[in-house]
Amino acid sequence: MTPGRRSSTFTRLLRHGFTDPAAAERLLDGPELTPVRNDPVLLEALGATADPDLALNGLVRLLEAQDGPTAHRQLLDTLIAAKPLRDRLLGVLGASAALADHLARHPTDWQALVTYEPQDLHPGVEEFERGLAGAADPVSLRVAYRRCLLSIAARDVCGTTDVAQTAAELADLATATLRAALALAERAAPEDAAACRLAVIAMGKCGGHELNYVSDVDVIFVAEAADGAPEDRALKSATKLASHLMRICSETTVEGSIWPVDANLRPEGRNGPLVRTLSSHLAYYRRWAKTWEFQALLKARPVAGDADLGRAYVDALEPLVWKAAERENFVADVQKMRRRVVENIPAAEIDRELKLGPGGLRDVEFAVQLLQLVHGRTDPSLRSGTTLDALQALAAGGYVGREDAARLDEAYRFLRSMEHRIQLHRLRRTHLVPEGEADQRRLGRSLGLRTDPVAELNREWRRHSGVVRRLHEKLFYRPLLDAVAQLAPGEARLRPEAARERLEALGYADPAAALRHLEALASGVSRKAAIQRTLLPVMLGWFADSADPDAGLLNFRKVSDALGKTPWYLRLLRDEGAAAENLARVLSAGRLAPDLLMRAPEAVALLGDGDGGGLAPRQRSHLEQEILAAVGRAENAGQGVTAARGVRRRELFRTAAADIIRSYGTEASPVEADQGALVDRVGAAVSDLTAATLAGTLRAVVRDGWGDTLPTRFAIIGMGRFGGHELGYGSDADVLFVHEPRDGVDEQEAAAAANKVVAEMRRLLQLPSADPPLLIDADLRPEGKSGPLVRTLKSYGAYYRRWSLGWESQALLRAEPVAGDEDLGRRFTDLIDPLRYPAQGLDDDAVREIRRLKARMESERLPRGADPKLHTKLGPGGLSDVEWTVQLLQLRHAHREPGLRTTRTRQALAAAREAGLLSAEDAAVLDEAWVLATRVRNAVMLVRGRAGDTFPTAPRELAAVGRYLGYGAGHAGDMLDAYRRTARRARTVVEELFYAD
Length: 997
Description:
5% strand, 5-stranded mixed sheet, 61% helix, mainly alpha, 44 helices
């Protein structure tokens, strides 16, 4: 061969898409292709395939396998003369190494591609049954199956059939194969065949007439006794036949396997009997079936065995399928199942997962099935098991926007085409996009992307996947807006009845009111309405993910009415990212956060920071600085305290919003795994905010009455949860007030000034206003309610030396200065340290007295009618149990364990564990119980807008508490059981540590 010719051929091969021109040139010059090596038709045809190198290699292997020169020449002559055969055969060889292997083993099967009659273009079950008719055993059945598969693949790669037709043909071939396998099983066991009537019900993609090249074939078996046969004998016979059918299709032979037959969608899954009677199926679905099982039955289709029994099965179960949407938490169950599928994908594969990943095929299928189940109850036209047919019917009925349906149809077809071509290459069950450049090049070329196959493939894949990601959830919600908005002429509208059906399925208790809100938000031609029409579909989904969708939508309307004309708010809405989802979560999680927001809607701006920085708690020093600056600008104490309360309201909203978002989780911010961290963050933020508010209020009152200097030094000591940095949203501020007259100031004058300051602070902080009041509770002072509100430091010292009781020493464990004169606060702490950390610990009498007080409190203070096991404060294993146990350890051991000298319960518990005063296991049990009880109290306040120590009784409120605690819809009972278990374990530890000698 001359160098010039080699160079010319080499260039031509490159131009025709060969990636290894040298190897291709050797094959073309070889003996198998000698008669046609210079025929331009062959090179053009090879260049049109997905992988010219693969096609050429497969062709040479097929020619080598021909039985003698005559067969060899017949193949070459037909290949050159008949374009349909040439395109089909080379198209298959260039797309499927597995089918090339089959042709090399069965070299006459290429003749199955010769015919090109109209009836050959779209064969059905009967044609495939004829193609399998000669199979007498599992091996010959596999060969015949591959021969039929060869013709399907040929029509597919040549574009004779589209992806939907190909999937239907694959399902028809599976139907014919199941019938042939059942016939083989019956032939092998005629007595079993005579004893029963067995029907095979196709499920999944086979039942939906949309099968892949390589897929499990999902089935359910139903059987009845033949005339005169006992039922138990019939079921045994049917089970033998079904098992044999599965083996015929699934087992590996010298010709490989066909595909696995999977019967795990049957009642009870793999734990249930393989075959049941129709009445047994019905009994299960009526009583035990879960939502996903009715979703699976959407695609049920009798395909083999007793046709009458198969039809009876579908007819009997169909009414149950179309009632599934009436089940409680139906939408939530379906969406939870979808999320679970995504969560189970290995992290290394999720970006390549074509079927199950975000924006994948399953997203389209789930969305379509959800809509079918909701609206198919009243519209039989939607009852198709085929995804694309159902999508078309949904669009025709106005249940889905036509444009959205068209875009999803295009995306689904592209993704299914990718899936088909990936599987066709090796005939392996996979849904992962290959990583290798050569594989991606072949895949791209097989889809008609020829200029830059790899880049074009990835661009188109990401584009279509993005369409699915954006639309699959909105598909359910967008038509709700169209139902109340002006539509283009000819566009189908979701009927009001259908809109109400959909809203009810989403969990809206008052769908008529929800439609009115949607109309108010989305109607009109304003920029505000246009933006909200874009955003609302996804926000409706977020609202539906809460326990109270009605409240979420109503609150969104209120916020939009208040801020709708504000430019920055519209910009916030336009961003469908973190801000929009944060807002939806906050508005639908309960009453507290929306109430705080409605009083000053501009606080919604805090939600707009995509990285969550706007929701981060502010340091106490920054809060004090802002509040004191606002007080300094005020004209009087009333204005100053109003400003301080306004800051408090905004910061309470910030804290509550961050807590809700971290508890619910969003796309931008996953659920906080550390429940203790959530509690600590709320406790610290609310306690710091309360301290800063008191500091500002004190400054305002002093400045208004006395100018810069009060006649007496004045300090506020935080007590209880306030001193422990553990305040909740509904907590009062437990405090002590201490003062010390300045030099030369009369004690009576100083006391009068101090009392006036306290009275004015309490009055101003409780005045009715748009801001929540801050209640100051000083009942932990010496002598309780009977004693003076304010004492001097000297008076405190005298009282504690002479009259102090054991409970007061215990209460002082939580004392910490929070506002006012810092030096006076430190001296007060020095004064009480010997009482709360007694030098020798507690004697036995003191311990017995504390135990006696605790027992009396348990019996006397629990509200009448309350369930003790669910009372988070006073019930067994509740806050009181844990805190008294920790405090007893502090009183007994803090004199020699410095780590116990803290006002914070969890820190003291950790220090006691480190000191060996209790085991790590017991400490963990107490900590878990304390954190859970605190979380429940926070949840109750967030949900109801008022404090409470026990779980709400109203179902929707209870569900909202559960959602905050991480329990999905319908799992309130699980939440209560978990609380009881946690509290019970804690009570056991408390009885060992607190009451045991």
